[in-house]
Amino acid sequence: MDYDSIDADAFGRGLRGIGLNLLVRDVAVEVAFLETVFGMRAHQPTADFAIMTYGDQLFQLHSDGTYHSNPLLGLLPENPPRGGGIEIRLYDTDPEEACARAEAAGGTILQEPTDKPHGLREAYILCENGYAWVPSRGKDV
Length: 141
Fold this sequence. Notes:
The protein is α/β, with parallel strands linked by helices. It contains 3 helices and 8 strands. 19% of the residues are buried.
């Protein structure tokens, strides 16, 4: 799939496996954060939507306005954090490097890079929408 030129109908019909859609207040702000901190790439970003890639992984950002008739919109909390309870793990991102970029990009570091007993070195970074991004690497990488 060519994410830079595909139309919405073909994109939707071509999706397979598990999908991740993140509802955000401002798509451009979230795109800038994800590109700056984690080196992700936005495809066809607009004020309401962006296709995001992290390596060969795909997910989508949607603005609140795109969910006007979606049943989830009524469940959004009035006050942050929105993404409480979800961890978005990025196994190919150096936690030290991500933390060094996070605060300047508007993120909040919840946990500095830490060696965990399950073999990973990881950090917890919140974006302004309250999603917990967890850059992780094997301790020997």
